[in-house]
Design brief:
Two copies of one chain form a homodimer. By secondary structure, the first copy, chain A, is of the alpha/beta class. Helix content of chain A is 33%, strand content 18%. Chain A has a seven-stranded parallel β-sheet with strand order 3-2-1-4-5-6-7, sandwiched between helices. The first copy, chain A, has a six-stranded parallel β-sheet with strand order 10-9-8-11-12-13, sandwiched between helices. In chain A, strand 1, helix 1 and strand 2 form a beta-alpha-beta unit. The longest helix of chain A is centred in the C-terminal third of the chain and has 16 residues. Chain A is globular. At the A-B interface, helix 2, helix 3 and helix 4 of A face helix 2, helix 3 and helix 4 of B.
Chain lengths: 350, 350
């Protein structure tokens, strides 16, 4: 199949540092190429891919210091549009701008929505352009969207090969990995560890916007013999950090549409203790690859029970559900489904 | 002529409080209606106009708490697009989003760029869609744009009738009116007044983003018998505030594409002392409606000389160049010029 992958320009594909969407776009692109498809990747010029790369900005916009990304994305979409006849499928990883420019090509366009959809700001575009086929990254992500949204499929993310290798032994500490931000509830993680009497290692970056929250709410909690704050870690450190843990704590307080760190932990064989919120119940096999909780007390009890979870079963759950190969397969099924409606796919017609 | 006016949705038209673009769009719309044109205004639903209003959001987005305005603007543009056949001219007051969606209708579309154009963020869109006819609000505004930009005209803003009425007497103080922000250089205004030994009244709002600048750089300068900080004032207070002044200080430190406050002061008969920057030399008649300066020393001397400027001549300069009637006339000439090229206007072809 001739597939265009249209990635955000905020970061390179894959990103130098952070950038969940660009990481997933990279894993998907590489896997589709590996499976023999002819893939063209529209992304920043410092991207690295085995697909054909169409450079749509010299480098990722964020690290280039570009603050308003709209113009660069519109210019990229003009390039996609120019070459549209050479693609069977045009797959967007952007939220908004393509709906207007490709409203006459929805029979071969599809958009994966990567972000949260519970902000009213974005709704007008989905109401104004109801024919664009949409893919959610979890069923939970769909909840706030209007009933008219043209959902084609849910495709859970999958991890590229070689990342977060399986560690059959694990270790004795709890892990917290992510940004320090109120929604991720690092304070809950710290309370759980202290009350469970277990070590907690916190690997987290602090964005400028969260500086004040970190200083006033989190830093005072760190001065405790069980708590170790190790700051930001890179991709290479992630595997050992997650693989060496007894369990990952994911005590989120918001409907996270997909928590990549959960499948990274599972890849390493480390079970996840997560709050019942957003996509969590879809991603965790409760009792198999982790434990879903609703309170601090349940989380403390889960920490104790987590030692009994078989790390080989956690890894098997990951391999069955969260590899890039499975993700690419799901996308190909969705693409086929779309192409079998040459007049354009509409969920309402199904 | 059947004219669509497409205004930003950030504020109502006219705006409740701030919003330079929405104010100008309102003055232009009302004047075009007054001259007998059939005008359709695409704007937020709480706008007030004698044109036909197409409500594209329940109320201005900023006061409604919507932070990302992209989706709402795309939905508005879809409405414009739907009705495009009923217009001879579609006149956009947005910077970016319409270029992609109307790239096949540039023979009857025109965009007034209201903002600064010296940020690299926006350039990709003007390079990707080079056929959209553009109108600058000053010649100075054009400088940073690529030579390929399809300029149709420069149209200076004009003020709606009844605002900032002429005050033949003026008063004894210097006035500063605007936001407290480093680019507007309120510190310069204060230094000039102190060294000239004249009273300065500062009518200015402080945005959240400028709080720190205000507290650390400006507030310490206010404790002086010649300086009076009166905070934010509304539209009704603006006329008396400007009309009662000896001169307006406009000591800007950036290439402001058009300083509305300069023509508001001129409307009241008050001369303007302004730094040579951006659009200033186009707007001020040097020695007629104000004095253009390059240094603090020149500004101090200008304060003394400003008493000799004839307020009737300032007002006459305003009436000749900066009324909404003159602005609408210029726009109609530009529209005619566009429509005389049915294949689409290109500056290069002239």
């Amino acid at each position: 199949m001739r597939i265009a992958q249209v990635a955000p320009l905020a970061e390179s594909v894959p990103p130098r540092l952070y950038g969940g969407t660009e990481r997933v776009a990279s894993w998907l692109t590489e896997e589709l190429v590996r499976q023999g498809h002819r893939v063209t990747l529209f992304a920043s010029g410092d991207s690295e891919t085995s697909a054909e790369l169409v450079a749509c900005a010299p480098q990722g916009l964020r690290l280039a210091g570009i603050r308003d990304h709209t113009a660069s994305h519109l210019a990229m979409l003009a390039k996609v549009r120019e070459r549209q006849e050479s693609f069977d499928i045009i797959h967007f990883h952007l939220d908004l701008l393509q709906h207007a420019m490709f409203s006459d090509l929805t029979h071969k366009c599809v958009t994966t929505l990567h972000g949260r959809l519970d902000l009213p700001d974005f709704l007008p575009v989905y109401e104004a352009f109801p024919r664009m086929p949409l893919i959610s990254i979890s069923d939970g992500q769909r909840k706030p969207m209007p009933s008219t949204a043209n959902w084609l499929a849910t495709v859970h993310h999958g991890l590229g090969p070689g990342l977060c290798p399986f560690d059959p032994r694990g270790g004795d500490y709890l892990a917290f990995l992510g940004r320090i931000t109120p929604e991720k509830r690092p304070d809950r993680a710290i309370e759980i560890a202290k009350r469970a009497g277990m070590r907690l290692r916190v690997a987290a970056k602090v964005d400028a916007v969260d500086e004040e929250y970190f200083r006033s709410q989190i830093e005072p909690l760190l001065d405790h013999p069980l708590i170790e704050f190790i700051g930001e870690i890179d991709e290479a450190q992630k595997g050992p950090f997650l693989g060496g843990a007894r369990a990952l704590l994911f005590p989120i307080d918001w409907p996270e549409p997909f928590g990549l760190v959960m499948i990274e932990a599972m890849s390493a064989g480390t079970p996840v203790i997560a709050w019942r919120n957003g996509s969590v119940p879809e991603i965790l096999g409760d009792g198999v690859s982790g434990i879903i909780v609703d309170s601090i007390a349940e989380a403390i009890s889960a920490c104790e029970r987590s030692a009994a979870i078989d790390r080989f079963r956690v890894r098997a759950h990951f391999e069955q559900h969260f590899t890039a190969e499975r993700m690419a397969g799901d996308y190909l099924v969705a693409f086929d489904r779309l192409l079998s409606s040459p007049q354009g796919y509409t969920k309402a017609a199904e």
